[in-house]
Amino acid sequence: MGEPPLFVDPRRWGSLIGLIGGLVFIGSYSPTLGLAFSIIAWVIGLALVLTALAAHYMWPVALGPMERPRAAALATYGGCVVGELVLIALGSRALTATGHGDLRPALIAVAVGVHFIPFAWAFGERMFYWLGGFVAVLGAIGLIAGFAGAAHAAEAMAVAAGLVMLLLITLYARGKFVDHPSVT
């Protein structure tokens, strides 16, 4: 299908959703970790967002040929979003019922991460494996540490997940996930 024109490339516009999501993780959970940590997280997060936006729209690089989305891509996307919301709702109920409602930020990171992984197949973008894997693992670490009694582990790992989302999207915007042909 080739490289779409810059301002109609759905990969560039789709990145905006992830950039907003990363900032939501930072804004929602960093205040719990103290003012200094929150300020540092916001500064890093905003710098990454500005860098990603500049990379996408001011100094764009090729993101590689865009595959025509599979027929099931839209259904996959919708199913993943619904699954994410169901996992968050049911998981939140289970955490609250067991007295661990404070671990919800980590659960949300797991759900967000897991929902990204099928997008790699649906949209032919391997970056989603990395994005989903890192975000889900950070959320799982937050859950495990929280169950073990580490104070604010869920919030810390949710903020880390948001920063990793922003970092990976910025790297994607700089073309770091483009498959380069091997030299023979």
TrEMBL record:
Keyword Iron-sulfur in record: no
Keyword Transcription regulation carried by entry: no
TM annotation in the entry: 12-29, 35-59, 71-91, 103-121, 128-150, 156-173
InterPro entries on file: DUF7010
Pfam families the UniProt entry points to: DUF7010
Entry keyword set: Membrane, Transmembrane, Transmembrane helix
Protein name in the entry: Uncharacterized protein
Organism in which the protein naturally occurs: Antricoccus suffuscus
